[in-house]
Amino acid sequence: MKAALVERLLAAKSGRRAVALVTDLGSNAQAIFAPGTPDNPSGNPLGLSPAQRDAVQAVLDANLSDEIEIEGRRLFVQARVPNPRVIVVGAVHITQALAPMAALAGYEVIVVDPRRAFATPERFPGVALRHDWPDEALDALVLDARSAVVTLTHDPKIDDPALDRALKSSAFYIGALGSRKTHAARLHRLAKAGFDEATMARIHGPAGLAIGAKSPAEIAVSVLAQMTAARHGKPTRFPEISAEAAPAAAQ
What we know:
Blueprint: H1 3-14, E1 19-24, E2 30-33, H2 50-61, E3 65-70, E4 73-80, E5 85-89, H3 93-104, E6 108-112, E7 128-130, H4 134-141, E8 147-151, H5 156-167, E9 173-176, H6 180-192, H7 197-200, E10 203-204, H8 216-231, H9 246-250
Parallel strand pairs: 5-6, 5-8, 6-7, 8-9, 9-10
Antiparallel strand pairs: 1-2, 1-4, 3-4
Helix pairs in contact: 3-8, 4-5
């Protein structure tokens, strides 16, 4: 592989951009394919037709490495898609359960909490920690469509700035812990800050699927399940099932 291609792949990884390395198996020529753009700044060195570009895009969307044959041409496509990541605001007990669970599910986990006594390596071994204020941290991290944000502190001084940045981003999931009363007060503050109802509806509050979770670990399971559903485009809000309705729902 040419050095220029390696540099572009590393730049895409650093910028959390999804790209594909495309190899023409007939000529062994290679180029970087990026969604919605020519597969090289100098043009289209592989001479991909619209149909071939669509086929490469489909492999990239599926996050696969695959050989395809289209219009008499054999191409090997290697998708390079950044891992999904979750930024958890608040180094609390729920976070201690959520962080390792999310890591096992393939998420890059970052915990943000300016309270250094809570966000310690001893409490979060192997987890990336940030001690700046959430708005500063999220500005630096640059939220993208493969990012999720979960706020868990119950402290508006910490949670609200994070929600402000998350709502202004393309984050695929935004969750905020708290009771319905707490969430209503949160929405009131965000409305005063200028957010409309459609935008605020992106927040899952209270965060997590309604599974009757009580303990920190159970709440972490419910949040991770809801976040994963959002990542895969599945429903994330379900009505609570009463004991009387449960047998019927199971049929």
